[in-house]
């Protein structure tokens, strides 16, 4: 794996330079390491202005051949997936590359026998078991476009996503168990399908053994279809720019957008980023705790690890079942070397008894990663010291559903890190900061709208069925750039720190303040577990800072507490950012991927809680009631 893996900081600087000067050569060099049915005519064409970026046009390939077939000779017996089910004591199940290949070929034949063809959309609403990967890969093998919907979504959210892409088939389970909870996936699917006329067939994979209803002629069992089906399947050769999948964003800022990713560019980008950011080696055991229903699961549980021929873990349960030591138990059990999770999980586990960590031997760990939100410094240090024993590089990876793979991040052990910073761009990625008028900030040190100046292979090719929204969201505001929607600060070393979403930026007395840094300062208070800040209308300042905090103990003296918080803010940021109002809450409104939905808090803070907008992706709507009823001081 040494080839195309950067090994030192000096090397990084050289490779980065080349990748920016000669991007087509750089990406073509790496793309050549894959199996193609036909080579491409043009490495890159199209532009951000036109919203028609293409990579490897004319090339033909199948991504699944590159994930599986390509490894059979050398790694057929190697474990592709280790499955860790909800119940910790259940039998261990591992799947080799050879077996996975067989299962995918069989299921590809099943899909074809049900009339699914290249270009058809297939919705997948499943538990986190190897079958979710098999379903997705079988779609990709026959050229059908998968749309995985996170299994925590409601019937309405599932129906919305099926309708948006006119899916022809739904693949689901009877149900799933997460912790002690049963989620009746088939029942939820039945409800969703009352309003989805495009769905012709439903395949049900038996898993939780819960009772379900059956619609003859529409529903069929996975295991019955898989009997007596051939293990041979010839993968469909796809154009590099044919769609591979549609995936909806998490909906933190509004109605989810169905991102379209294509076969060639997605393959090249996810594979390259995994091997370089994580510095993965042949015998590593790689564990990304995300759900396959999010982009992190697509790129770093399914496609990225398989493209690199490594062994990965598919984890069905939750970090706190049966107790808050579960993640560390699994690390010990499988000698996990690479562990990738979200700050929200780290913050939740940090407040538990440290004995849950100390009980387990974590010495197999080599690299730790985070994704999804800015990680506050306190959580970063806890992760570093308690989980990594001060010896594992932490990669704080910034990227989006739209980007396909990691964009700004340290390369483990290669890039010197700074807590709270996503650090430097990956090769082939040219970030820039723009002021609100669209002028590029040319000084190294600065703050502004984070944009990307050059096309990279993984950039979203569209919002399904809505080119206008695609152009408006990413390309029209600052022509020639891809707009990320995130605010960012660059320090004197050129290191990038995400300051929060631009939509969430506060404007206090003319000063623009990002949410991340203020929250970082508040989280440093020993009684604060997590916080979220938003602006509220203020007569004099325009906006004041409103801080919602979750505390780990009762606050007897709110005024002193507020002063202490404001001292921390003054010390690390500026007195301008001091909180005018503080409210203690038991939870924060979060999306189903664990991110704070600040726009809901903003409405509450402004006294407009009657009109919350689209909150269908909210995990815990009940907390909104509590927050609305609570009082600030
Ligand atoms: P929507 O676009 O529908 O509002 P979303 O942005 O939450 O949803 P995702 O694509 O899952 O959907 O999340 C990407 C966003 O997550 C980024 O734009 C950024 O705001 C945040 N993010 C991801 N990783 C990091 C990180 N390492 N540091 C800071 N922020 C991050
Ligand atoms: Mg987004």
TrEMBL record:
Domain of life: Bacteria
Pfam families xrefs: ACAS_N (PF16177), AMP-binding (PF00501), AMP-binding_C (PF13193)
Keyword Nucleotide-binding: yes
GO MF annotation list: acetate-CoA ligase activity
Broad class of enzyme this protein falls into: ligase
Keyword set, alphabetical order: Acetylation, ATP-binding, Ligase, Nucleotide-binding
Domain Acetyl-coenzyme A synthetase N-terminal: 12-67
InterPro entries: Ac_CoA_lig, ACAS_N, AMP-bd_C, AMP-bd_C_sf, AMP-binding_CS, AMP-dep_synth/lig_dom, ANL_N_sf
Stated family: Belongs to the ATP-dependent AMP-binding enzyme family.
Identification of the protein by name: Acetate--CoA ligase
Species whose genome carries this gene: Fodinibius salicampi
Phylogenetic lineage: Bacteria, Pseudomonadati, Balneolota, Balneolia, Balneolales
């Amino acid at each position: 794996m040494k080839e195309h893996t950067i090994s030192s900081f000096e090397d990084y600087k050289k490779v980065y330079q080349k990748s920016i000067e000669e991007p087509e050569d750089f990406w073509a060099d790496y793309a050549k390491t894959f199996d193609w049915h036909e080579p491409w005519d043009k490495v890159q064409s199209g532009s951000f202005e036109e919203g028609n970026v293409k990579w490897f046009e004319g090339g033909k390939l199948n991504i699944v051949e590159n994930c599986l077939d390509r490894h059979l000779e050398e790694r057929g017996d190697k474990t592709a997936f280790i499955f860790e089910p909800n119940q910790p004591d259940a039998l261990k199940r591992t799947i080799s590359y050879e077996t996975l290949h067989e299962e995918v070929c069989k299921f590809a034949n099943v899909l074809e026998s049900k009339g699914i063809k290249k270009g058809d959309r297939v919705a997948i609403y499943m538990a986190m078991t190897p079958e979710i990967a098999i379903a997705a890969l079988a779609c990709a093998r026959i050229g059908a476009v998968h749309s995985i919907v996170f299994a925590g979504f409601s019937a309405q959210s599932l129906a919305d996503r099926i309708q948006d892409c006119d899916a022809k088939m739904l693949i689901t389970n009877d149900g799933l168990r997460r912790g002690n909870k049963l989620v009746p996936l088939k029942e939820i699917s039945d409800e969703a399908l009352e309003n989805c006329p495009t769905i012709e067939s439903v395949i049900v994979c038996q898993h939780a053994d819960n009772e379900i209803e059956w619609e003859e002629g529409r529903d069929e069992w996975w295991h019955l279809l898989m009997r007596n089906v051939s293990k041979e399947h010839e993968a469909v050769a796809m154009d590099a720019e044919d769609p591979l999948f549609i995936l909806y964003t998490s909906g933190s800022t509004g109605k989810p957008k169905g991102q379209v990713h294509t076969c060639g560019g997605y393959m090249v980008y996810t594979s390259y980023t995994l091997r370089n950011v994580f510095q993965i080696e042949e015998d590593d055991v790689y564990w990304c705790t995300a759900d396959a229903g999010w982009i992190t699961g697509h790129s770093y549980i399914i496609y990225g690890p398989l493209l690199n021929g490594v062994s990965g873990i598919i984890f069905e349960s939750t970090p706190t079942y049966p107790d808050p030591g579960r993640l560390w138990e699994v690390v010990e059990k499988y000698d996990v070397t690479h562990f990738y999770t979200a700050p929200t999980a780290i913050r939740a586990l940090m407040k538990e008894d440290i004995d849950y960590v100390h009980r387990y031997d974590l010495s197999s760990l080599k690299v730790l990663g985070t994704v999804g939100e800015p990680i506050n410094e306190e959580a970063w240090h806890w992760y570093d010291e308690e989980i990594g024993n001060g010896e594992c590089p932490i990669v704080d990876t910034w990227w989006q559903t739209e980007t396909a793979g990691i964009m700004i991040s340290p390369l483990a052990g290669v890039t010197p890190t700074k807590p709270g910073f996503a650090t430097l761009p990956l090769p082939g990625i040219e970030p820039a900061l723009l002021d609100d008028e669209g002028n590029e900030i040319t000084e190294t040190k600065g703050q502004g709208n984070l944009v990307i100046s050059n096309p990279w292979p993984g950039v979203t090719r569209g919002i399904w069925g809505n080119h206008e929204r695609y152009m408006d969201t990413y390309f029209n505001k600052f022509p020639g750039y891809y707009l990320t929607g995130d605010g960012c600060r660059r320090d004197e070393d050129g290191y990038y720190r995400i300051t929060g979403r631009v939509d969430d930026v506060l404007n206090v007395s003319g000063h623009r303040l990002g949410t991340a840094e203020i929250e970082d300062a508040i989280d440093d208070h020993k009684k604060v577990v997590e916080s979220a800040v938003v602006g509220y209308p203020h007569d004099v300042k325009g906006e004041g800072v409103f801080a919602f905090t979750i505390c780990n103990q009762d606050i007897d003296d709110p005024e002193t507490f507020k002063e202490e918080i404001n001292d921390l803010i003054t010390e690390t940021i500026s007195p301008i950012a001091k909180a005018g109002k503080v409210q203690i809450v038991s939870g924060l409104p979060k999306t189903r991927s664990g991110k704070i939905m600040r726009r809901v808090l903003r409405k509450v803070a402004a006294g407009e809680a009657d009109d919350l907008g689209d909150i269908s992706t909210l995990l815990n709507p009940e907390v909104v009631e509590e927050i609305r009823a609570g009082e600030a001081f």
